[in-house]
Design a protein that fits this description.
heterodimer, A: two-stranded antiparallel sheet, 17 helices, 11 strands, 42% helix, B: alpha+beta
Chain lengths: 368, 223
């Protein structure tokens, strides 16, 4: 049984219960006390994961044994744990932020120095509404840390990805060797892998990107999953128990093989038709968010709406930290014209190189 | 149809970024190209400019594996490209000597091509593509037979980058660059400078029965 700790200055019992998974992971609730005392007590429990509410300084007294001048926010406690794990990597553990949407938006989001301290950020609202999905991710995070701890900074990329010799060319990047395989603390490896490999399309693809590459709409891609599940395209390496991903190069090779052609040269409707015929299943083609046509060449999922999109009707997003092995983010014209990409949850800005096209697109007549 | 230096400079900067984003240009290669772009932007509305990119600090493309299993990379340099758009009947290149070299892993030149404007009374088309042709201080390495010089439209840095991307990074160029609006706009600006007068002259050659296109585009016979 895995053990975790949930620290909250207001009813830690509630979210400790929500985040626990029967027979797998139990979160112990803890109220707030002076930082070093709390940190020591938590470390003494050898937790496999620690969850923190962001504003640990809102309530004083009662179960919270801090005075007004002893209060602190989650970032300070997280930083304390990270400092300790740098010298004692075997005791490293994932730290997740579990806080209200308002606190995340108005307090955590502006506090950029705290962002790197947390493996994942979950709103309390999402924890209630998507308990199964979030607990699945948390357990996966714990298991991933075990993997990184066990290889002691000498991980094999092939083993982490659960790949084969044939995958070597697609994972053999210097950044992955230095920042993951040779990372000196599990949290460094885990964060890099999660943010750059799992969260970004590149070596691995999330489902919307699979739909875009295959030119099928997101609703009917579930029909395809059965066929994909039987193949080697599904990713089964670290974090795969929490995040469904597919190998990009294996997907491309599979699609080219079963259609007998370079699938990317075909339009969405042609790809869909070729796949449906080859697999003998029903599929619907992806449609351009701009003009509703399926006679377009999608190659990625829009970073704003997630719909299959093509280069021609999209703009580059400002994406300065994209590693070489990942796809750069783009925003479809429909999201540009409707300003949907400006939703704060997307955290998207149009790259300066394409910025002068925004006003042009906003004046275009849109057919869809 | 003239292009101001600032617009041309912006185009080069866009090309540099787009190619770097796709890992087609190295960081240094993109820096080299974008620095030229920024320099031209400071020239604002000028219709004339000079460019040179040394062999020691070329526009460098990322290494790629060829189907023979070996790794190569491309470098582009130019002794001088001098643009003067004051004359309309002739492509606006007072000087043009743009080289593309393909090197192996050991840094040895595998092959070299260059786009030239013919010098002085040099025999050949005024604007030509030529194989080989080493720089002045490496003449001993030249292939012994310099011909043929192919009649070819003048191209400058931006169009050369497009050519390299299309030939050596075909999938990335085909699936990502070709339809990128900003990329296309930037290349269009380069095309305006390079092709406008050339295409106009070539078209007029097609309607001339007493001569041929090659003849009328020969050095000293342009007109």
């Amino acid at each position: 049984m895995l053990n975790g700790v949930m620290v909250d200055d207001d009813n830690p019992e509630l979210y400790a219960k929500i985040l626990s998974v029967r027979g797998v992971l139990t979160f112990e609730p803890m109220a707030v006390r002076p930082l070093t005392d709390l940190a020591e007590e938590i470390r003494g429990k050898s937790p496999r994961v620690v969850a923190l509410d962001y504003g640990l300084d809102d309530n004083i007294g009662g179960d919270n044994q801090v005075t007004a001048n002893q209060t602190f926010k989650a970032g300070a406690l997280a930083q304390h744990f990270r400092d300790h794990s740098s010298s004692s990597p075997d005791s490293d553990f994932p730290i997740i932020l579990v806080s209200s949407v308002d606190k995340i938006k108005h307090l955590f989001a502006p506090d950029k120095t705290a962002h790197d301290l947390f493996d994942r950020v979950y709103s309390k609202e999402d924890c209630k509404n998507d308990r199964e999905g979030i607990t699945r991710e948390v357990v996966s995070l714990v298991r991933a840390y075990e993997v990184f701890r066990d290889c002691h900074g000498k991980c094999s990329l092939e083993s982490l990805f659960n790949g084969s010799q044939d995958d070597a060319d697609f994972i053999n990047y210097q950044e992955l060797h230095l920042d993951v395989a040779q990372a000196q603390a599990p949290h460094l490896a885990a964060q890099y892998f999660l943010r750059k490999v799992i969260d970004r399309a590149g070596i691995l693809l999330p489902l919307p990107e699979v739909a875009a590459r295959l030119g099928i709409d997101r609703e009917s891609v579930s029909n395809l999953l059965h066929a994909l599940a039987g193949s080697e395209i599904g990713y089964r390496g670290v974090f795969s128990d929490g995040w469904d991903r597919w190998w990009a190069h294996r997907l491309d090779a599979w699609a080219d093989h079963i259609t007998g052609t370079k699938i990317r040269m075909l339009s969405a409707s042609e790809r869909c038709s070729a796949l449906a015929n080859a697999l003998e299943i029903e599929l619907s083609p992806a449609r351009s968010t701009w003009d509703g046509s399926s006679d377009f060449h999608p190659s990625f999922a829009c970073a704003s709406c997630g719909e299959p999109s093509d280069i021609r009707h999209s703009l580059a997003a400002f994406d300065p930290h994209a590693p070489r092995f990942s796809q750069r983010k783009r925003i479809c014209w429909a999201c540009i014209q409707t300003d949907r990409y400006l939703d704060p949850s997307h955290n998207l800005i149009v790259d300066a190189v394409d910025a002068d096209l925004v006003s042009t697109i906003q004046k275009h007549d849109r057919k869809a | 149809m003239t292009v101001e230096a600032a617009d041309f400079g912006r185009a080069l900067a866009v090309i540099a970024q787009k190619l770097q984003d796709l890992d087609i240009l190295t960081h240094n290669g993109a820096l080299c190209l974008s620095e030229e772009g920024y320099r031209m932007r400071r020239m604002r509305q000028s219709l004339s400019w000079d460019v040179s990119i040394s062999r020691e600090r070329p526009i460098e493309f990322t290494p790629f594996e060829y189907r023979d299993g070996n790794t190569y990379h491309v470098e582009v340099s130019t002794e001088r490209i001098a643009v003067d758009q004051s004359q309309e009947h002739c492509p606006p290149f007072e000087a043009l000597d743009l080289a593309m070299v393909l090197l192996n892993r050991a840094g040895e030149i595998v092959h070299r091509w260059h786009i030239d404007r013919a010098n002085g009374d040099q025999a050949g088309p005024m604007f030509h593509l030529q194989y080989g042709g080493h720089d002045r201080d490496q003449r001993q390495a030249d292939i012994p037979i310099r011909e043929p010089r192919w009649n070819h439209p003048p191209i400058e840095l931006g169009l050369m980058c497009e050519l390299v991307a299309a030939n050596f990074y075909t999938e990335r160029w085909f699936t990502t660059l070709r339809e990128d609006r900003s990329w296309c706009s930037a290349i269009q600006i380069c095309q305006k400078v390079s092709y406008t007068a050339y295409v106009s002259h070539l078209s007029s050659c097609l309607n001339t029965s007493y001569s041929t296109a090659l003849s009328r585009m020969w050095n000293g016979c342009w007109g």
